[in-house]
Amino acid sequence: MSPWRIRASEEPTMGLLEKWNPKATWRSVLRAAVFNMGVGAAFFFLFFKPEWREAWPITLPPWLLLSALVGGLIEWQVPPDDYDPPPPRGPSDPSATDPPA
Description:
The protein contains three helices and no strands. With 101 residues, it is mainly alpha-helical. It has a domain at 26-79. The longest helix is centred in the middle third of the chain and has 22 residues, at 26-47.
């Protein structure tokens, strides 16, 4: 057997709709989906030219639906410990010891 071949039993696989975030609830998934719809709408209107307005009724709804699905899936599957850690607080925080400007 080739050393480059990985056996399926060596590493767990992740299904598309399998819940990996233990803190995800239907409300947090819905909140993430609505937030991503807003981000998707802002991206759509900022980066697609205004002269394409006649195509907006056709292209905007699928774009928002895709944005909501991606946001919901990220909330459902990415555990909170995979996010960047929060910035340090307290005496070890360098901004706490900076003199006022």
